[in-house]
Amino acid sequence: MNWRKFSIVIGLLIIFGGALLINLMLQGKEPPTQESEVVIPPQTIEVVKITQGSFVPEVEIEGRLTAFNKIDIFAEVGGRLQSTSRPFKVGSRFRRGSVLLNIDREEAELSLLSQKSSLINSITQMMPDLKIDYSESFQQWSDYLNQFDINQPIRPFPEAKSEPEKFFINAKNLNTQFYNIKSLESRLAKYIVFAPFTGVITEALITPGSLVRAGQKMGMLMELGNYELEATVALDELKFLKVGQKVKLVSDAISGTWTGTIRRISDIIDPNSQSVIAYIAVKSNDLREGLYLKGSINGKTISGVSKVNADQVIERQYLFVIEDSKFKKYPVEIAFANADYMLLKGLPTSTLVPSEKIIGPTEGKTVNVKELP
């Protein structure tokens, strides 16, 4: 029994001693100090003062070159293709007026000579009656007959001196023969195809010795040094352009600077992009079809506007300005815009705006201002 009491006393002493030890430990620990509030200084913003003035907007354009003159070459007559001094091959260059293609025309020449011989015979048979009935015209017809050269283009008939003489000539069927010969002469000229301009063959579909059919495509000729640039222009930039304006052009592929001229502006609006096509004439032997060019066109001067970076205008509706060291949204009216800058109307002179785009500005946020000269 005494052992039981002893155990209880020992247990109580242990509990009491542990509680006392914990209390002493808690009393010796310093109480937590209250964290001081962190103060973030206002952001320092570099700003510039808005000024108003007159600016010449630069309309940026880009596009690919296409040849101004490019024609498909078709055969208007049939026959066997003959060789020429310069082969009709892709890459071959021809000067204006040189022979592109020569189709055998022997049969057509013989047919023409036959028709001319028949006409000479008809005029010869008419001469005796003409001398009796219309003697005043006999000499001019005699001279016409003597000067007739079957190897030269036919000359017009002598003019009739009276209505009866005109009916007499028609009755002999001479006019019908005359126009048949003119038709054959015109057809004969189509057997030789001449280059209408200085250019290069970009497509060749036949070779010498081939039998050519009327209406058959033989190739394609492209003029050298004369190109057009098709540039897309937004509707809000169209008012700054006009036919005849000069355009400065450059290429990323080759070195050089070229000057183009707006040749025409399309009246058709692309329904998807709400833009039109401006056609810019460019002449240079250094250029090639398909080359990508870009450039700028100086538009009409705009007065009473302010120039800011394009990325500072939010949603094309407002601009953050600094007023009383705080951000403030300011509605703007855009007079001109491109990828780099915008010309704005309505901004008061000396308004402070950030010198560059600010990430995440909020209206009313306090900032420190550092004004740039």
Task: Describe the overall structure.
- The protein has about 375 residues and is an alpha+beta fold.
- Among the domains are: about 80 residues, conserved putative lor/sdh protein from methanococcus maripaludis s2 fold (Beta Barrel), CATH 2.40.420; about 80 residues, Elongation Factor Tu (Ef-tu), domain 3, CATH 2.40.30.170; about 80 residues, no CATH class.
- Helices cover about 25% and strands about 35% of the residues.
- The protein is built from six helices and 24 strands.
- The strands form six sheets. A six-stranded antiparallel barrel has the order 3-12-15-14-13-16. The protein has a four-stranded antiparallel beta sheet with strand order 2-17-22-21, with no helix packed on it. A four-stranded antiparallel beta sheet has the order 4-11-9-6, with no helix packed on it.
- Strand 19 and strand 20 form a beta hairpin.
- Helix 2 packs antiparallel against helix 5.
- It is elongated and about 175 Å long.
Briefly say what this structure is.
This protein has 373 residues and is of the alpha+beta class. The chain has helices at residues 2-28, 106-133, 135-146, 163-171, 174-188, 235-238; strands at residues 43-49, 53-55, 58-67, 70-74, 79-82, 93-94, 99-103, 192-194, 199-204, 211-212, 217-223, 226-234, 246-250, 257-265, 275-283, 292-298, 302-309, 313-314, 318-323, 326-331, 333-337, 341-345, 352-354, 367-371.
